[in-house]
Amino acid sequence: MKIPTVLSLFGGISSVSAYYCYGGGHRLSYSVAKFHFTRACEGYSGIAGAFQGWFAPNQEKYACVDLGDNVKLEMWVKNHNPTTGFDLGDTDCTKEFNNIMEYCFYGFGGHNDVAGWYFRIDANEGTC
C-alpha cells in the first residue's frame, strides 16, 4: 500500500500544484524515469510520444514501460476539463513529470493536479 505525502507548491503550469508523493513501492531512478517520461511527452526519433497531441474533454492517456526484473513504469496524463479539449505542450508535459520526480525525492513517484491537468508516474510490480 502506498502512503501519500502531500506538498502544496506554487508553480507548475502557472497554477497552484498539490504534489502527492508515494511513500513506498518500487524506487525509480530519476535518470530512468526522466528518459521515459521525456519520450512519452516529446516523442523520439520521429515517433510520437504517448502524451503528444490532442486531449478531448476528460480524456486520460496512459503509457507503460517494462523496466525489467518484473517492474513496470506507469504514467498517466488527464485533461480535467469536462467541455473543452486541449493540446498539452510537449515541454509542459515533461516539466510536470520532472516536478513530480523532484518534489517526490524518495523516488517512489507520485501525482499532481495543476491547471486542469492530472499527471501521475509510478513504478509497480508486473509487466505492461
Spell out the helices and strands N to C.
Answer: EEHEEEEHEE
Integer-rounded radius of gyration:
14 Å
Beta-strand residue fraction: 35-45%
Low-confidence stretches: 1-14
Total count of domains: 1
- What's the helical proportion of residues? 10-25%
CATH class, named Alpha Beta
What does it look like?
This protein is an alpha+beta fold and 128 residues long. The chain contains two helices and eight strands. It has one domain: Killer Toxin P4, Chain A (2-Layer Sandwich). Helix 1 packs antiparallel against helix 2. The longest helix is centred in the last third of the chain and has 14 residues. It is globular and about 40 Å long. The N terminus is likely disordered.
Outline the secondary-structure elements.
Elements: E1 4-11, E2 15-22, H1 30-42, E3 54-55, E4 60-68, E5 71-79, E6 86-87, H2 90-103, E7 110-114, E8 117-125
Antiparallel strand pairs: 1-2, 2-7, 3-6, 4-5, 5-8, 7-8
Helix pairs in contact: 1-2
Properties at a glance:
128 residues, alpha+beta, Killer Toxin P4, Chain A, 6-stranded antiparallel β-sheet, two-stranded antiparallel ribbon
Task: Quickly describe the structure.
The chain is an alpha+beta fold. It has helices at 30-42, 90-103; strands spanning 4-11, 15-22, 54-55, 60-68, 71-79, 86-87, 110-114, 117-125.
